[in-house]
Write a structure and sequence with these properties.
The complex is a heterodimer.
Chain A: E1 3-5, E2 10-14, E3 19-21, E4 24-26, E5 31-38, E6 45-50, E7 56-58, E8 64-68, E9 73-78, E10 87-95, E11 103-104, E12 108-113
Parallel strand pairs in A: 2-12
Antiparallel strand pairs in A: 1-4, 3-9, 5-6, 5-10, 7-8, 8-9, 10-11, 10-12
Chain B: E1 4-6, E2 10-13, E3 19-25, E4 31-38, E5 42-49, E6 56-57, E7 64-70, E8 73-78, E9 87-94, E10 103-104, E11 108-112
The chains are: A mainly beta, B mainly beta.
Chain lengths: 114, 113
């Protein structure tokens, strides 16, 4: 069965620190990958997505993610976090060409301190 | 601008009550979804629908049912609410076909006492 793992459950960083959140997926075929973010009190919104092509994907607010097929990974990165990046981050995957059902990871809560 | 709305932000119900959660999208999307979000468990899919009057079970459908009579509206029904259904419920929609980006509503925090 398809699964998505996020090993960092809670990350605390100081402002200006670099961020990398891990995401690994388990799926035999081609996958489409997403990172969603949920700011406190707000709804989930798309941060970035990978369908095909360049494995380095850039999203909103300076975030990027790299798809490494050999490692089944899609880690999220940001060179310098801000206090406003405090949020919960979810990785999700769906098999390309299959039904629309996304599988989500358990989420990583990021806390950025001043 | 894409919009998914949910009928209530907060809801308190008693054990055994029948509960209706409503979701409306204004983007003419074919697909609609209901998830529950619990700390440490992420989002788990309850039911989804590809078209009007179509529904498919997700990963945790037990204790829930759904209704989709119109394309823009997808309802989640708890036939007899139980305390273990206390959770945040999220509705989402997306265009048909793959790949797809899902657009989420603000969520309904349901407490069953």
């Amino acid at each position: 069965a398809q699964s998505v793992s996020q090993h960092n459950h809670h990350v605390i960083l100081s402002e200006a620190a670099s961020l990398e959140l891990g995401c690994n997926y388990s799926y035999g075929g081609t996958v489409n990958l997403f990172w969603y973010v949920q700011y406190p009190g707000q709804h989930l919104q798309l941060l970035l997505k990978y369908f095909s092509g360049d494995p380095l994907v850039k999203g909103i607010k300076g975030f990027e993610a790299e798809f490494i097929k050999s490692k089944f990974s899609f880690n999220l990165r940001k060179p310098s976090v801000q206090w406003s990046d405090t949020a919960e981050y979810f990785c999700a995957a769906v098999g390309a060409g299959t039904a629309s059902k996304l599988t989500f990871g358990t989420g990583t809560r990021l806390q950025v301190t001043l | 601008d894409v919009k998914v709305t949910q009928s209530s932000r907060y809801l308190v119900k008693r054990t055994g009550e029948k509960v209706f959660l409503e979701c409306v999208q204004d983007m003419d999307h074919e697909n609609m979804f209901w998830y529950r979000q619990d700390p440490g468990l992420g989002l788990r899919l309850i039911y989804f629908s590809y078209d009007v009057k179509m529904k498919e079970k997700g990963d945790i459908p037990e204790g829930y049912s759904v209704s989709r009579e119109k394309k823009e509206r997808f309802s989640l029904i708890l036939e007899s609410a139980s305390t273990n259904q206390t959770s945040m419920y999220l509705c989402a929609s997306s265009l048909g076909g793959t790949p797809n980006e899902q657009y989420f509503g603000p969520g309904t925090r349901l407490t069953v006492t």
